[in-house]
Amino acid sequence: MVERRPLNVAMLGLDVGKKTIGLALSDPGQTLATPLQTIRRTRFAKDMEFLNVVITEYDVDGFVLGYPVNMDGSEGPCAQSIRDFAIEMERTLGNDPWIALWDERLSTVSADNIVDKMVQKRKTKVNAKASGLIDKLAAQVILQGALDFMKKY
After folding, report:
1. In what order do the strands lie in the sheet with 60-67?
2. Residues near 127 by Cβ (< 8 Å), separated by ≥ 6?
3. Does the residue 94 lie in any domain?
């Protein structure tokens, strides 16, 4: 995972779901991940159009996609769709982009816990899910986990 990764550039973390993609952005030093936004999925070409805007705006040169793994370490039911998304993303972006798949176990649970600490009312938590807050926080958890791992090597 750490070989040939780009250095001193921002990385984008993606929590790819069936309906949304949560996005998080690292600083160029790849120390801190920050939740960026959540996009509604339509079709892959439209998703990539939007991602290209983000990539250009933030000068992104590396990607970490959440990879669904079960608690026992086996692949989750959506693992193949994430691999397919990564392959299509690589084809669409060209220039051999650096894309890593990162074990996303408990990332949404962690995001939910963050929201629980931020809000007390159930209605506010429902609004947090509807607004995409949980998805972009999950992307942040995914990206931060990968950044912390890569700093060790």
Report:
1. 33-40, 20-26, 10-16, 60-67, 99-103
2. none
3. yes
Nearest CA to 89 out of 3, 21, 149 is that of 21
Structure-block tokens of residue 110: 């962690």
Is the pLDDT at 11 greater than 80? The verdict is: yes
**Structural domain includes residue 5:** no
- CATH number at 131 reads 3.30.420.140
CB 25 within 8 A of CB 14: no
pLDDT digits (tens, 9 = 90+) for 14-64: 999 999 999 999 999 999 999 999 999 999 999 999 999 999 999 999 999
How many structural domains compose the chain?
A: 1
Instruction: Judge whether 13 and 143 are in contact, CB under 8 Å.
Output: yes
Q: pTM of the predicted model, to two decimals?
A: 0.84
Largest Cα separation within the chain, whole Å, is 47
Q: What is the pLDDT of residues 117-129, one digit of tens each?
A: 566 555 555 555 5
Q: Are 60 and 24 in contact (CB under 8 A)?
A: no
Residue numbers of the domain that contains 75: 10-151
- 78-83, long-range: CB < 8 A, 24+ apart: 78/18, 81/16, 82/16
